[in-house]
Design a protein that fits this description.
It is a single chain. With about 170 residues, the protein is an all-alpha fold. The protein contains eight helices and no strands. The longest helix has about 40 residues. It is flat and about 75 Å long. The N and C termini lie far apart (about 75 Å).
Length: about 170
């Protein structure tokens, strides 16, 4: 009886330890435990969108991203992942829209800027695609407006801090 119990517990411990050694079982376990985890949904989406080649399933990846976004619509990492999947699906207009949102997120801005520049360098290379040029210009207006709005908000915040310090003196 002691041997059976020990064997059972050892097997369970080994199985659980093995889950923590590989990202796929770890995130699968995480989603089973907490299906409303934004991070776990997003990371599983990355696995299904090509990070693990034998698991490639873009529809499943989109479903997981959608779940993550439904949990917290303000979680901006989802835009980078949507863009990644849309690019693989050759849905370039959707890719462009998500890239704009990804550029406006401070956490994903660096990678998004790299992808944005590479993409538009190729698309606008010959200068003959007027529709693409018009989309690019429209996106840049949105981005500039968002940056200016952010700068204005920061100035107001700093002014409030200065005013508070002056009031305390």
């Amino acid at each position: 009886l002691f041997f059976i119990c020990t064997f059972h517990l050892a097997r369970r411990t080994h199985t659980r330890s093995a889950e923590w050694m590989d990202s796929v079982p770890l995130f699968e376990s995480s989603l089973k435990t907490c299906p409303r985890s934004i991070k776990s949904n997003l990371e599983m989406s990355k696995l299904y969108s090509g990070l693990v080649p034998h698991m490639l399933d873009l529809d499943k990846a989109l479903s997981l991203i959608s779940t993550a976004q439904s949990i917290d619509p303000q979680y901006c990492d989802v835009h980078q992942q949507y863009a990644h999947v849309y690019f693989q699906q050759s849905k370039y207009i959707s890719f462009e829209e998500e890239m704009v949102q990804s550029l406006l997120c401070s956490f994903t801005m660096g990678q998004a800027m790299n992808n944005w520049n590479k993409y538009w360098k190729v698309v606008l290379n010959d200068g003959k695609n007027e529709a693409a040029k018009a989309r690019y210009d429209r996106y840049m207006v949105r981005i500039r407006a968002a940056v200016e709005n952010d700068q204005d908000e920061r100035r107001l915040e700093e002014e409030k801090k200065r005013q508070k310090v002056n009031d305390e003196l």
